[in-house]
Design goal:
The protein is of the alpha+beta class. The mean pLDDT is about 90. The chain has a single domain, classed as Dockerin domain (Type 1 dockerin domain, Orthogonal Bundle). The protein has a two-stranded antiparallel ribbon with strand order 1-2. The protein is built from 2 helices and 2 strands; from the N terminus they run ββαα.
Length: about 100
């Protein structure tokens, strides 16, 4: 669900009965943060601020820094299509 963070823990067990000790609860094996597609500033709301961010990186390389988030259709370019997709999502919020 967009706007939420999930933490995962695992405990290994092999065929001879060795069992890995459980990690402390504050040290998960993996952390996954689910983002709202088009919410470039992580405020759980697609709004004018997200449109401005995409406008500011139009034509830039989506593999540079956080630009990957602006390539909404994942075509390898940040262009007007990404701006339109963001505009179409205006008002969408995390639940």
């Amino acid at each position: 669900m967009p706007g939420h963070t999930y933490r995962f823990y695992s405990i290994a067990r092999d065929n001879v009965g060795h069992v890995e000790q459980a990690p402390p609860p504050d040290q998960p094996d993996a952390i996954v943060r689910v983002i709202l597609k088009g919410d470039l500033n992580d405020d759980c709301n697609i709004n004018i601020l997200d449109l401005i961010r995409i406008r500011n990186v139009l034509g830039q390389d989506p593999t540079t820094g956080e630009n990957w988030r602006a390539d909404l259709n994942k075509d390898g370019r940040i262009n007007l299509l990404d701006l339109i997709l963001t505009r179409n999502g205006l008002g969408t919020r995390c639940e």
